[in-house]
Amino acid sequence: MSDVPRIVSSRFETEGSHTMEGYKSSGTYAGYEQIRAALALSPDEVSSLVKDASVLGRGGAGFPAGVKWGFCPPDVWPRYLVVNGDESEPGTYKDRILMERDPHQLIEGCLIAAYAIGAAQVFLYVRGEMAHAQERIAAALNEAYAAGLVGKNILGTDFSVDIVLHWGAGAYIVGEETALIESLEGNRGMPRLKPPFFPAAKGLYMQPTIVNNVETLANLPWLLSHGVEEYRAIGTETSPGTRLIALSGHVNTPGVFEVPQGTTTFRELFEDERYGGGIRDGHELKMFIPGGASAPWFFPEQIDLPLEGRVIGGAGSMLGSGAVVVMDETTDAVRACLRIVRFFARESCGKCTPCREGTTWEEKILQRILDGHGRPNDLELLLDVADNISPGPYPAASHPDAGLEAIPFPPKQTTICPLGPSSVAPITSAIRRFRHEFEAKITHRDLIPVAAAPMGEGD
Amino acid sequence: MARFTAANEQIARDIIARYPLAKSATIPLCHLAQEQDGYLADDAMAQVAELVGCSSAEVLGTASFYEMFKLHEIGTYCVNVCTNISCQLLGGEELLHHAEQTLGVRAGGTTSDGMFTLEDVECIAACTEAPALQVNYRYFHNVTNEDFDQMIADLKSGDLASEVPNHGTLALVRQEIPADRQTNIGPPEDQEIPVWIARQRQTAGGDGS
Question: Which of A87, A160, A246 sits opposite B184 (nearest CB)?
């Protein structure tokens, strides 16, 4: 692993890495020395550092964190920093590991960001189901408070900030930043309309609020210790640094791997002994999801693409939250598609009609196709329902055999947030590529009830 | 018995004190009630409302949105089998079927002895360890049918009691903020420009963000 830079995962295998002692004595930089280094700079200098390094948000959208910080109106106070640890995108398993195994790294990242932004308070929102992560963060915060690293007059300076552990209660949509803010205010986690409610302008308690992903903030201590140049030397010009990728599904050695962004390809990820170790023995790749359940599917032709947001977006999908799910030829495309759609149907918050009604219909139609009750026009109906949630051509990978070009990301939407449109991803991906599988289920196991026959003809 | 005990009420007040506005403590307080009673009872919600200063209908409105809040009594152990895509690919649905057969209830049901509630859940972020499940939000990775049976036996015999607390209890460690370390927490309208930002602006001659 020596040639692979470890920015955020350097303590994953270290015994006791979750304690302050472990954080200070292991890893690729000296723990809690980085906030000291940041405090020697001015807040603006720290912001510039993050902007110059081009630290891209690791939550899904991939927006540069330093630029996001700059969106706060200059003279409105207080500002809040909210850490999004509500990791729930199917296939994603990176923030949990960061919170469980290296909570102090995240806390130090929060301190650096809070200092730069001028945050009055930090809220660390951990997903409700992650009891162990909550425990580790609570213990780490208690240690940090006792050591004078969080709270009043940090390290004897005039920088003071509280970090409050907050925890959710089970709702995927709360991963969306405005829904997360609603939830943090004690309400149902329903997204707010943007504009006007861009968190940087009107967020928590209608104050400027920066919402950053756990992994994004976990990058900051290393950046402070190694500097912009060394950070930018990893990955590519437009996607510097590393990504934590959760590789799951039909590979020999699934796992969470830290890989350089932009330079690593999917082929390397699947086949390299350090990562996936090849597609499950005796099987071949049928399709894969490059960035979580919301991402349109890729197929063997896309395997040589690099893990870079821009490239993947142009090829018709997204790198999203770093969740790569590999499916071999034994996978039933309809069944996989239904499972993902069912997820969105269950998790729709119900605020926007096209999503609330549409995802439920998508699920019903797919279920009846899978059960052998599909109707001849079901595929058209399905695509029509999908079109009401995300109108126009939906992002999709190219299909050279069928002469189809890639349709670039992102999709259009008739909803406030991208949850509804995400439900369309597996549908268009699967139908564009495996229409025959759907048709076979509809025609060969067609069990249209007798009552559906024209009047007078049934008996 | 669903109002907070004196000790828990103190914990509730400590939690509320960490937020600029009390209503933000709604979800943590509902969790605390669930930890105490195993589920979220009506009078617990009424008390949460009193503590955070809203109506009990608002607390119900919030609580009913979230999957983890159980508004009725459920089993001592809530067994959540993940069947989402990564787990489905490696047998999550078959594991759920086995669980239904073993426990004799369908997903969503509770065994007649009140010991287990079985749920078919969405991704629990253990995708590389599929198929995975949680019992009272404690993880079990790469679960085979045999592992499942063993786990159920161990839960019944009490062998897992130290690892898996009763339903409702999440983190066993609570955040404690020492009173003399706490800073700056108050409603937004009482806040001003942070001192270190003001200091920078002064040195930089009034310019900055």
Answer: A160
CA A215, A221, A222, A226 dihedral sign is: positive
CATH value of B1-73+177-209 in 3.40.50.720, 2.60.40.10, 1.10.10.1590, 3.40.50.300: 1.10.10.1590
Tell me how far apart the terminal alpha carbons of chain A are, to the nearest angstrom: 70
Select from B54, B170, B181 the Cβ nearest to the Cβ of A167. Answer: B170
Which of A137, A186, A247 faces B24 most closely, judged by CB atoms? A186
Indicate the pairing of strand A162-167 with strand B133-135.
Answer: unpaired
Distance CA A80, CA B172 (A): 27
- Give the CATH fold of the A234-328 domain: Ubiquitin-like (UB roll) (3.10.20)
For the cut 80, the answer to whether the pLDDT of residue A112 exceeds it is yes
Contact A47 B209 (CB under 8 A): yes
pLDDT of residue A29: 95
Report the 3 state secondary structure along A271-338: HCCCCCCCECCCCCEEEEECCCCCCCCECHHHCCCECCHHHHHHCCCCCCCCEEEEEECCCCHHHHHH
Q: Is A50 on the interface with B (CB under 8 A)?
A: no
The CATH number of the structural domain formed by A333-444 is 1.20.1440.230
According to the model, what pLDDT value does residue A429 have? Answer: 97
In which residue ranges of chain B is pLDDT below 50? 207-209
Residue in A69, A62, A75 with CA at minimum distance from that of residue A47: A69
Q: List the CATH code of the domain at A20-231.
A: 3.40.50.11540
ipTM score of complex = 0.95
Q: Which of residues 92-121 of B touch A (CB under 8 A)?
A: none
Percent with pLDDT over 70 in chain A: 96
**pLDDT score of A3:** 65
CA distance B153 to chain A (A): 23
Share of chain A above pLDDT 90, in %: 93
Q: What residue ranges do the domains of chain B occupy? A: 1-73+177-209, 77-157
- Please give the residue that has the higher pLDDT: either B209 or A53: A53
**Closest partner CB to A187 (pick from B62, B68, B136):** B62
Q: Cis (ω within 30 of 0) for the bond into A410?
A: yes
Domain ranges of chain A: 20-231, 234-328, 333-444
How far apart are the C-alpha atoms of A301 and A110, rounded to whole Å? Answer: 40
Task: Judge: A167–B31 Cβ closer than 8 Å, yes or no.
Answer: yes
Determine the pLDDT at residue B85: 97
Average pLDDT over residues A279-289: 94
Pick the CATH number of B77-157 from 3.30.70.270, 2.40.50.90, 3.30.750.200, 3.40.30.10: 3.40.30.10
Q: How many residues does chain B have?
A: 209
pLDDT score of A359 more than 60: yes
SS (H, E, C) chain B: CCCCCHHHHHHHHHHHCCCCCHHHHHHHHHHHHHHHHCCCCHHHHHHHHHHHCCCHHHHHHHHCCCCCCCCCCCCCEEEEEECCHHHHHCCHHHHHHHHHHHHCCCCCCECCCCCEEEEEECCCCCHHHCCCEEECCEEECCCCHHHHHHHHHHHHHCCCCCCCCCCCCCCCCCCCCCCCCCCCCCCHHHCCCCHHHHHHHHHCCCCCC
The reply to whether A40 touches chain B by the CB within 8 Å rule is no
Cα–Cα nearest to B165, from B155, B157, B151: B155
